[in-house]
Write a structure and sequence with these properties.
With 74 residues, the chain is mainly beta. The chain has one domain: Ubiquitin-like (UB roll).
Length: 74
C-alpha cells in the first residue's frame, strides 16, 4: 500500500493541500488542473520555469506557484 503524503502550495494566491503518493512535478500539477502546458507560463518560487523543465521540476512543501494563461486575440 502506498503511503499518502501532503504538500502545501500557494497556488495563484490561494493555499492548497495536495495529497500524493509520489513526487510531484510541475507537469503533474498542470495535468491534474487540466491546464494545457503549451498555453501557460509557470512561475515557481519567483522564477519562470521553461516548459522543457516542467517534467523535472519537483514541487516542494510551502512553495509558491503562479500559473499564467496566455490568451491571444485580434
Amino acid at each position: 500500500m502506498l503511503k499518502k503524503k501532503i504538500i502545501n502550495l500557494l497556488l495563484n494566491g490561494k493555499r492548497h493541500k495536495i495529497y500524493f503518493s509520489k513526487k510531484l512535478t510541475i507537469q503533474h500539477l498542470l495535468s491534474f488542473l487540466s491546464y494545457n502546458s503549451n498555453l501557460n507560463i509557470v512561475e515557481y518560487n519567483g522564477k519562470i520555469i521553461k516548459k522543457n523543465f516542467y517534467k523535472t521540476t519537483y514541487l516542494l512543501n510551502n512553495s509558491n506557484v503562479e500559473i499564467i494563461t496566455v490568451v491571444g486575440g485580434g
